[in-house]
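Researcher: Quick test of sequence recovery. Tokens follow.
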């Protein structure tokens, strides 16, 4: 006898309805500044989810500063950004109402913080919608690369207001937002003294009782 939907087996669980979904492993998204666009699962074009001239709207729910390597040549400051795709994002691009994570560095960190400061003159940025886009740049050697653009707007419409209610309920549970794989070669800078941060960024090896990365 075939199983119906109610008795079907779910090995990995099911996505909750009318709630924010927090995967066991963070849904990792790459903001690809070499080719421009959102990539998932790798940096090749088969992993591309958006074109370089497309924007994606998200709700940012947590940011954490780290120092170290993301498995690339660059070693320095990173900003870990947890977010949930906006209601209008196609599920083929990013999963609906699911907690995702990306990392940014250098001028892209400044771009996000500048956007946040501008938004604060209007309302709480966390209540609204951020748009992520890419802008083509030219390097000193003539090679092309992309920087990340951030903009912010207030929510509008029933779907966006409904998502805000879901986010409020989700964050009210004090969820644990971590990405162990992404931060395996990083040190969390949150809650450290300026001296401890300086010791990390200068490459010191013997650090006094630093809290573990979160």
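Model:
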């Amino acid at each position: 006898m075939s199983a119906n939907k109610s008795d079907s087996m779910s090995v990995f669980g099911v996505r909750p309805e009318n709630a924010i979904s927090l995967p066991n492993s963070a849904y990792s998204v790459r903001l690809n500044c070499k080719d421009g666009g959102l990539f998932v699962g790798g940096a090749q074009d088969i992993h591309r989810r958006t074109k370089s001239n497309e924007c994606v709207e998200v709700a940012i729910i947590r940011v954490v500063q780290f120092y170290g390597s993301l498995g690339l040549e660059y070693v320095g400051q990173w900003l870990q950004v947890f977010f949930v795709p906006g209601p209008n994002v196609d599920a083929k691009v990013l999963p609906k109402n699911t907690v995702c994570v990306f990392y940014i560095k250098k001028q892209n960190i400044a771009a996000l913080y500048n956007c946040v400061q501008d938004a604060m003159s209007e309302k709480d940025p966390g209540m609204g919608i951020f748009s992520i886009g890419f802008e083509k740049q030219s390097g000193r050697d003539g090679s092309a690369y992309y920087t990340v653009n951030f903009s912010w707007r207030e929510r509008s419409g029933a779907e966006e207001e409904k998502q805000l209610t879901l986010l409020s309920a989700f964050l009210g549970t004090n969820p644990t937002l971590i990405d162990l794989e992404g931060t395996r070669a990083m040190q969390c800078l949150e809650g450290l003294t300026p001296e401890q941060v300086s010791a990390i960024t200068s490459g010191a090896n013997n650090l006094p009782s630093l809290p573990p990365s979160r």
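The chain is about 15% helix and 30% strand.
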